[in-house]
């Protein structure tokens, strides 16, 4: 009895020889289909390639009319071939003409063939074409023959992906892999970026497809699987991930996949059919992704992302490659495309090479977006499917204003966006001209425009943006990008550098705000929480772990010697927390005084107003502190009962709704009443329309990303504040005609030619 695996191995050996021969693309395809037909004892073998216009074109055939090559066509979903392409599933039929999807193409002469086996040509789960064998006799093709044809299709997919077949495409037509595609999602940060794709979790391109020794490849697979399983077990056993909730669930899913015998068996079968271990992982991964992409169950689709990540980890184990190799070879105009990523991961990429960020998930207030905004790069989010459609090196445009991306754009679209970039550059020149002008309304009222920062990389933007100071320095970012707790000396150096870069302008340092969704992987004391945003975080955590706070306070006091120090406490819920923090600060001041350290000339303590409980003790709060900062991101989240990371609710409620504006008005009025300075430092401050609303409500100090200062100042200098205050007197409690406040504010600006 013939060894069933010998057929696929012989075929793969022949394919390897063909791929090494110096042949023209059409000749290579013709030889491939001829060898497949011979190996599988088939009278017909045909290759159809998917074009950008969703048409499958016959590219090569053995057995059908050769004159039909590049002329015979089927639409996606039409006939058996179109059905395979649309479903990404093979079809194995003993009598093809009885299948309801059968469509006869008279130019091919295929009407005399009964049995039919067709498999999709897949790459990264995407269908690039269909490979078919046919026989006159009615027969059902064996499983090993299906496997052989699928493996061959994988080789052809690489030919398509490398552009080998582009020369065979008729003028005016393109293959599907290169077709332009656009995605519409959400704008997370303004700006326009033109560049080339860098996949954050890149698919590893397997170039060595054929093995010389199947048993050696199986041993390599077993060794890499063992290492992968050990690394997952180690991550799960470490105490520092025990509290991470969803992260732990993902690792549990990884462990389940890594120990799944069905997955391992399919990998071993692919190796014994002639593939290397890497190519086997790529083939099984692509097959599974193609099947899962057509499932509607969101849970199963999410598990596919877990499986993808696991398979990529295994590929890296096999090929001895790490993610750091990718960052080292960035193009000069990199646009990072990711399903999701952390703030620290973004900072691994060189800022001078980044032109934009595309996220499949995320929210405007997630920390990676906040960091990207501080770096001044455009961000578009909720771009579902962008990762699987993109290839490293693809041309891409990120429109952070409209929340749109264009992958492999047409030349005329690229030219239009290049002009848009030039226009924005001219507008930036206008903003730069505004830097030295007073930050006052048209009727002469001063409004301080401050910037948010968190890392040394942000500091040059203080002068470039013309900010009046730093209204929020997020000290936790230094902790988030480090692999261990930053030593007191490192903290002190950063704080001193910040104050020196500010050149006498005010800087407000927020004490460390970790916990919730700001997880430090090296923090051993954290706990698992069902509602981390409402849990053990910020001031609650640091008061319970005073050593953390004491070390930071001491570093801040030493760095501020001879200068004013402004300290702000995050997530304050009750006034007792301010008193406890003040006690710790006073203790550190006494300690440093005892050892004759150079101390700040003055120390001002403030609180962030993010928790609604403070709204019911506003006057007491204003008397208990030297200043107040409104954290509008969290305050809006808690007032409206909206998880700010929940993409289903991202646009459901408006931050400029009348109820929330009334809350902000109460805060501004309390500050004026008690002569306590009030700043707002959330995302509301960074958009001209919402900044206009804040100024109309009584805020005279707002803090935003550096890139937002120019547009907000351009609005401010054209703003007649007396008219805006009258507008709020008329509309805040009872909006005119029942219209949304955003629409009324837009109309107010339009009527007075205020640039928004």
UniProtKB/TrEMBL annotation:
Pfam family, one: PEP-utilizers
InterPro entries linked to this entry: GAF (IPR003018), GAF-like_dom_sf (IPR029016), PEP-util_enz_mobile_dom (IPR008279), PEP-utilizing_PTS_enzyme (IPR050499), PEP_util_C (IPR000121), PEP_util_CS (IPR023151), Phosphohistidine_dom_sf (IPR036637), PTS_EI-like (IPR006318)
Cofactor: Mg(2+)
PROSITE patterns: PEP_ENZYMES_2
Catalyzed reaction equations: L-histidyl-[protein] + phosphoenolpyruvate = N(pros)-phospho-L-histidyl-[protein] + pyruvate
Domain spans labelled GAF: 24-170
Entry keyword annotation includes Transport: yes
One GO cellular component term: cytoplasm
Alphabetical UniProt keywords: Cytoplasm, Kinase, Magnesium, Metal-binding, Phosphotransferase system, Sugar transport, Transferase, Transport
Family per similarity comment: Belongs to the PEP-utilizing enzyme family.
Name the UniProt record assigns to this protein: phosphoenolpyruvate--protein phosphotransferase
Higher taxonomy: Bacteria, Pseudomonadati, Pseudomonadota, Alphaproteobacteria, Hyphomicrobiales
């Amino acid at each position: 009895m013939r060894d069933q695996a010998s057929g696929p191995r012989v075929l793969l050996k022949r394919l390897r020889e063909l791929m090494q021969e110096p042949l023209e693309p059409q000749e290579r395809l013709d030889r491939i289909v001829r060898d497949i037909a011979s190996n599988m004892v088939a009278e017909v073998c045909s290759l159809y390639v998917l074009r950008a216009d969703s048409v499958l074109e016959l590219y090569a055939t053995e057995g059908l009319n050769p004159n039909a090559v590049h002329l015979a066509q089927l639409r996606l979903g039409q006939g058996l071939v179109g059905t395979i392409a649309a479903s990404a599933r093979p079809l194995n039929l003993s009598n093809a003409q009885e299948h309801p999807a059968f469509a006869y193409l008279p130019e091919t002469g295929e009407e005399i063939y009964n049995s039919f086996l067709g498999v999709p040509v897949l790459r990264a789960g995407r269908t690039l074409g269909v490979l078919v064998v046919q026989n006159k006799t009615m027969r059902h093709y064996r499983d090993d023959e299906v496997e052989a044809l699928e493996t061959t299709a994988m080789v052809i997919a690489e030919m398509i992906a490398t552009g080998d077949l582009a020369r065979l495409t008729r003028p005016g037509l393109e293959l599907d892999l290169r077709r332009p595609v656009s995605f519409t999602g959400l704008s997370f940060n303004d700006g326009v970026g033109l560049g080339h794709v860098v996949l954050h979790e890149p698919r590893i391109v397997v170039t060595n497809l054929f093995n010389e020794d199947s048993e050696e490849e199986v041993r390599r697979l077993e060794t890499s699987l063992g290492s992968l399983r050990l690394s997952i077990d180690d991550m799960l056993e470490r105490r520092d991930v025990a509290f991470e909730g969803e992260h732990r669930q993902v690792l549990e899913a990884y462990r389940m996949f890594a120990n799944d015998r069905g997955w391992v068996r399919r990998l071993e079968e692919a190796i014994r059919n002639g593939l290397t271990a890497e190519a086997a992982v790529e083939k099984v991964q692509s097959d599974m992704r193609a099947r899962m992409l057509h499932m509607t169950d969101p849970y199963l689709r999410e598990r596919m992302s877990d499986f993808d990540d696991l398979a990529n980890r295994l590929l890296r184990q096999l090929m001895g490659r790490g993610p750091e190799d990718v960052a080292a070879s960035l193009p000069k105009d990199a646009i990072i495309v990711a399903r999701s990523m952390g703030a620290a991961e973004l900072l691994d990429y060189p800022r001078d090479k980044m032109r934009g960020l595309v996220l499949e998930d995320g929210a405007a207030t997630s920390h990676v977006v906040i960091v990207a905004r501080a770096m001044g790069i455009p961000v578009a989010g909720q771009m579902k499917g962008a990762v699987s459609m993109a290839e490293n090196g693809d041309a891409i445009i990120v429109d952070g204003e409209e929340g749109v991306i264009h992958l492999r754009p047409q030349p005329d679209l690229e030219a239009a966006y290049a002009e848009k970039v030039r226009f924005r550059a001219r507008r930036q020149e206008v903003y730069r001209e505004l830097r030295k002008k007073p930050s006052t309304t048209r009727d002469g009222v001063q409004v301080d425009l401050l910037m948010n920062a968190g890392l040394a990389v942000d500091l040059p933007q203080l002068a470039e943006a013309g900010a009046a100071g730093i209204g929020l320095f997020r000290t936790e970012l230094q902790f988030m990008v480090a692999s261990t707790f930053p030593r007191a000396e490192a903290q002190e150096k950063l704080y001193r550098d910040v104050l020196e870069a500010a050149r006498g302008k005010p800087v407000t340092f927020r004490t460390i705000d970790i916990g919730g969704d700001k997880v430090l992987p090296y923090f051993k004391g954290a706990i698992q929480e069902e509602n981390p945003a409402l849990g053990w975080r910020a001031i609650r955590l640091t008061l319970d772990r005073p050593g953390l706070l004491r070390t930071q306070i001491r570093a801040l006091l030493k760095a501020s010697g001879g200068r004013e120090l402004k300290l702000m406490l995050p997530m304050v819920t009750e006034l007792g927390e301010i008193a406890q923090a003040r006690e710790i600060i006073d203790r550190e001041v006494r300690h440093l005084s005892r050892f004759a350290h150079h101390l700040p000339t003055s120390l001002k303590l403030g609180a962030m107003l993010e928790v609604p409980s403070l709204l019911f003790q506003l006057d007491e709060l204003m008397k208990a502190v030297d200043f107040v900062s409104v954290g509008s991101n969290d305050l809006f989240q808690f007032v409206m009962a909206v998880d700010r990371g929940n993409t289903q609710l991202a646009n459901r409620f408006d931050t400029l709704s009348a109820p929330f504006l009334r809350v902000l008005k109460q805060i501004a009025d309390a500050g004026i009443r008690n002569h306590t300075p009030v700043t707002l430092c959330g995302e509301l401050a960074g958009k001209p329309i919402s900044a206009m609303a804040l100024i109309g409500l009584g805020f005279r100090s707002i803090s935003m990303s550096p890139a937002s200062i120019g547009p907000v100042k351009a609005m401010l200098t054209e703003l007649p504040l007396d008219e805006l205050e009258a507008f709020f007197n008329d509309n805040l409690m009872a909006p005119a005609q029942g219209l949304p406040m955003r629409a009324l504010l837009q109309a107010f600006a339009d009527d007075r030619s205020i640039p928004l």
